[in-house]
Design brief:
Number of domains: 2
CATH topology of the largest domain: Rossmann fold
Shape: elongated
Structural class: alpha/beta
CATH architecture of the largest domain: 3-Layer(aba) Sandwich
Bound molecules: flavin mononucleotide
Order of helices and strands: HEHEEHHEHEEHHEEEEHEHEE
Number of strands: 13
Radius of gyration: 28 Å
Largest sheet: 6 strands, parallel
Strand content: 15-25%
CATH superfamily of the largest domain: Flavodoxin domain
Helix content: 25-40%
Length: 379
């Protein structure tokens, strides 16, 4: 009985200690944009400093998937999650004495957080990777501008740790936050001292985040109605995307320029043209519509490949251009093309609405009765 009672007391103590420990733990987001890894190297030191006190947990995330393979596995942060943290350390490359375009694009998506006062009172600190370091303090300052507009508590670095660094080489120390001049290769960058200052910055920031924890609202945005995933829509509507056709010449299946994807297709199905011929001569309207649907499915299959397999990244169908193999006096091209337009709207909803052009042609490649050119905007 006595043993049982002792066990109960010990368990209760353990549970209450765990709850207290959880309460005293802060979570800090280290949010970066990095093209080549310089900012990420600093981020790791900042995170190390943040976690040195044990009661603060650091999470490194990026604002968008980096094109650099060594950075592509860093999770991508959503704007909506920002208010859930107890502090945010922001890192970016210096771009023309400013924050990087990637970071700036991310900030441009935070308007709802701003008007909702979601980040007010939350501590923030900044760090940057530079080239030569030209304009680094302008850039750090520009970071502060955006964060001040959000009402965040800006945590500077001052001259913390400067007495311990090697003054014989250029160092990226700055009172606003650590930087590293990555193109100055007299030593490996970030230099040993820049890493040291980054860690100190993280350590100090963790102290501030812990002290301010619970003093601001962490007001998250009202939950938006969840958009149905395109995969679910395809399944629901029993739409099966074909396997990717192979290019039969010196061209690509798609071409991406910025956020636009360009795709051109004919009615290829299982390696053969579906319903080939000229409308009114050897194919009828129903057959051309079937070929048009197949052509649009080919386009969407290629589009899926262009967005890395996730059709939810499609922001808009911008334009479709349909060309049909018809006789001279044919005028109902629009009704044929509706097959492609309807399918696009059926799959992408509002995002599928587009401008359109249709025309007839005397002949089309490989005997196809239809050819479609499509332009999509993607994330
Ligand atoms: C568009 C652009 C503008 C840049 N402007 C500057 C600049 O004003 N000052 C500077 O020191 N470096 C500048 N750089 C260099 C980057 O800041 C530097 O390569 C940085 O280390 C990249 O960080 P990352 O390795 O995290 O991608 C610029 C780079 C680009 C692409």
């Amino acid at each position: 009985m006595k043993n049982w009672f002792a066990f109960l007391v010990a368990s209760l103590l353990l549970i209450s200690n765990t709850i207290m420990a959880q309460d005293n733990t802060a979570r800090v987001l280290v949010l970066i944009h990095s093209d080549h890894g310089g900012t990420y190297e600093l981020a790791k030191e900042i995170a190390k400093g943040i976690e040195s006190g044990k009661t603060v947990k650091a999470v490194i995330k990026q604002v968008r998937t980096s094109a650099d393979p060594k950075l592509k596995d860093i999770p991508v942060a959503t704007v909506d999650e920002l208010p859930t943290y107890d502090g945010i350390a922001f890192g970016s490359p210096v771009y023309f004495g400013n924050i990087s375009t990637g970071m700036s694009e991310f900030f441009s998506k935070t308007v709802d957080l701003w008007t909702n006062h979601s980040l007010e009172g939350m501590p923030a600190t900044v760090f940057m990777s530079a080239g030569s370091g030209a304009g680094k303090e302008l850039a750090l300052q520009s970071f502060w501008n955006s964060l001040a507009v959000h009402g965040m508590v800006l945590v500077s670095n001052g001259i913390r740790g400067n007495e311990n660094i090697d003054k014989n080489i250029p160092q990226g120390n700055s009172v606003l936050g650590i930087t590293s001049p990555a193109s100055l290769k007299n030593v490996e960058r970030p230099s040993k001292d820049e890493r040291y200052l980054a860690e100190l910055q993280g350590k100090n920031f963790a102290k501030v985040a812990l002290s301010l924890k619970g003093s601001f609202s962490k007001k998250t945005l009202a939950e938006k109605p969840k958009q149905k995933s395109i995969n679910d829509i395809l399944k629901e509507k029993n739409i099966v995307l074909p396997t990717l056709p192979k290019p039969v010449g010196n061209y690509e299946l798609f071409s991406r320029s910025g956020n636009l994807v360009f795709i051109n297709q004919v009615s290829l199905k299982d390696g053969k043209i579906l319903n080939p011929g000229k409308l009114g001569v050897n194919v009828n309207e129903e057959q051309v519509k079937e070929a048009t649907k197949q052509t649009m499915l080919n386009i969407i299959a290629i589009l899926k490949d262009a967005v890395g397999g996730d059709l939810n990244k499609v922001k808009k169908c911008v334009q479709l251009i349909g060309t049909f193999n018809t006789k001279d006096d044919y005028t109902q091209h629009a009704s044929l093309m509706n097959t492609a337009s309807d399918l696009t709207v059926e799959i992408f909803g509002e995002k599928g609405k587009h401008t359109r052009n249709t025309s007839g042609a005397y002949s089309l490649p490989v005997g196809s009765s239809v050819s479609i050119q499509a332009i999509f905007e993607v994330e």
